[in-house]
Amino acid sequence: MPRRIRRRIRGKFNHICFKPCGIPSHSLERVFLTKDEMEAIRLMDFEGLYQEDVAKEMGVSRPTISRILKNARAKIADALMHGKIIEIEE
């Protein structure tokens, strides 16, 4: 059983959803990003921090941040390329 480390998340990501324009949401598939993934994306891509600094900020190792970012970016790319809804999990 994988251990769960409590991560520090400072961003507010409740009730956020992005969808393609002009298509009813009930007919679209969804991609779910975790709060960990959103926080890593926020710190790395929006704030411009390095992976080492993101890891310290979130209280996890650098390889863990690398894995989180890889998963998040793959989900975002899938949603953009295939017209899916991006939803942030609560």
| Contiguous uncertain segments of 5+ residues | none
Please estimate the helix content. 40-55%
- Write down the overall mean pLDDT: 87
Report the C-alpha radius of gyration, rounded: 14 Å
Query: What does the main sheet amount to?
Result: 3 strands, mixed
CATH architecture of the domain at 34-88: Orthogonal Bundle
Overall geometric form: elongated
CATH third-level topology of the domain at 34-88? Arc Repressor Mutant, subunit A
Structural class: mainly alpha
Number of helices, counting only DSSP H or I runs of 4 residues or more: 3
Q: Which series of helices and strands comes N to C?
A: EEHHHE
Strand order of the largest sheet: 1-3-2
The span between the termini is 23 Å
CATH class identity of the domain at 34-88: Mainly Alpha
Oligomeric state of this protein: single chain
Q: Report the portion of residues in β strands.
A: 5-15%
From the structure above, extract its key features.
90 residues; mainly alpha; Arc Repressor Mutant, subunit A; three-stranded mixed sheet
Brief account:
With 90 residues, the chain is mainly alpha-helical. Helices cover 46% and strands 11% of the residues.
Can you walk through the features of this model?
The chain has 90 residues and is mostly helical. It has a domain at 34-88: Arc Repressor Mutant, subunit A (Orthogonal Bundle). It is 46% helix and 11% strand. The protein has three helices and three strands, in the order ββαααβ. The protein has helices at 35-46, 51-58, 62-82, and strands at 17-18, 30-33, 85-88. Strands 1-3-2 form a three-stranded mixed beta sheet. The mean pLDDT is 87.
